[in-house]
Write a structure and sequence with these properties.
The chain is of the alpha/beta class. It has a single domain, classed as NAD(P)-binding Rossmann-like Domain (Rossmann fold). Helix 3 runs parallel beside helix 4. The longest helix is centred in the middle third of the chain and has 29 residues. The radius of gyration is 17 Å and the shape is globular. The chain starts with a strand and ends in a 6-residue tail after the last strand.
Length: about 240
Amino acid sequence: MKKTVLITGASGGIGQALVRCFGAAGYQIAIHYHKNRRGAEAARQAAGAAGAVAQCYGADIRHSREVEAMVAKAEAELGEITHLINNAGFGQQKLFTEISDSEWEDMFAVHVHGAFYCSREVLPAMIRRQKGSIINISSIWGQTGASCEVHYSAAKAALEGMTKALAKELGPSGIRVNALAPGVIDTPMNGCFDKEVMAQLAESTALGRLGLPEEVARLALFLSGEEASYITGQIFGINGGFVI
């Protein structure tokens, strides 16, 4: 059976790296995007250049019906989803007392509800096959918390809790669930920081530099493969020693 991975938020920095990495490894790829169609198409073309079969699917994963439609279309074109990477997300810096109801709810809607909807939709086929892998992309801030990013930190912490609980529930079905908690990665999402702040963050990292999206992608690829067949329910820090 062909390996088919659904990657949410695949139009961003880490998402595009995931597409390139999994495409080079021979996976078929369902590339999810919300608004950034151009980024998704760029990822698809890169995967195609590596010889991979890849298609783009637009959906607002805050809504379960859109997720249902996306997965149905992807499986009709690529076959059953064998691997899922819940990567979609966004950041926001704001004082806790200034976070609005809608901003708090939207943070959880994307990071937590979206991962829930996508996982729930692909799991019946995985359970039937008694095989599959889910990887949730969390953040170092889900483990340590970040000032002025309370809603982001809380949502990522919830995603990590879901990872551990779901791993226990799905283990008897042969399905593994893990999470990555990247540190400061050199992606457009960190474009809100100026060069001075980014330099300070790099200096605060034990390895003295920012992480690369490709480094996150390579770890995700390993955890999706048979080499990681005895690994589940784990949160992997990939932060260059920012937190030890």
